[in-house]
Amino acid sequence: MNRPLPTDEQVRTAMETELHESQALGRRATVSSVEKQLGITHATFYRNYPDQIEWFKSQLDARRQAGTTAKDTTKREDDLARLRRENTDFRKQLRIYAEAIRQLTMDKAALEDQVQSLAGITNLDERRRRQAAESVDPVTGPFTN
C-alpha cells in the first residue's frame, strides 16, 4: 500500500518551517530534516521534488550570504587590524633581535682575536694577506721578486 506523496505546497511549507526553526535555533537547515518532517525517504524526495530542493538550496545560499556579509565584514576588519598591529610589532622585534645578533657576532670576533693574541696564536689569514700585500710590486704585479 503506497502512501500518497505530499503536495508541492506541503513540501514548501515544511521547507519554510525548517528554515525558520534552524535560524531560530542557530543550527544549519538541511534537506534531510525536511524529509524527516514529511516522512519521505531521501531517494523519493529527490526524485519527486527537484525544483523544491533547488529553491531550498537557493534560500540557504541567500541566507548564508546575507548573514555573513554584515557580521563577517566587521569581524574580518577587526582581524585584519589586529594582524597588522601584530605584524608591525613582530617587525620591530625582528629589527631589535637582528641588531643584537650583529653586535654579539662582532663581540665574539673581538674576543676570539684577544684570546688568540694572548695565547700567541698567529692567524694565518691575516699573515697571508700581509704577505700578499708586501709582495705586490706596483709595476710588475703580485708575487714577482
Structure description:
The longest helix has 70 residues. This protein is 79% helix and 0% strand. The model has no long low-confidence stretch (mean pLDDT 85). 8% of the residues are buried. With 145 residues, the protein is mainly α. The chain is rod-shaped and about 110 Å long. It has a domain of 87 residues. The chain is built from five helices and no strands.
Fraction of helical residues: over 70%
Number of helices: 5
Order of helices and strands: HHHHH
**Binned strand content:** under 5%
Low-confidence stretches: none
Q: For the residues shown, what is the average pLDDT?
A: 85
Give the termini distance in whole angstroms: 118 Å
For the CA atoms, what is the radius of gyration?
Answer: 39 Å
Largest beta-sheet characterization: none
Query: What characteristic shape results from the CA principal axes?
Result: rod-shaped
β-strand number: 0
Which structural class is indicated by helix and strand composition? mainly alpha
Keywords: Coiled coil
Coiled coil: 80-114
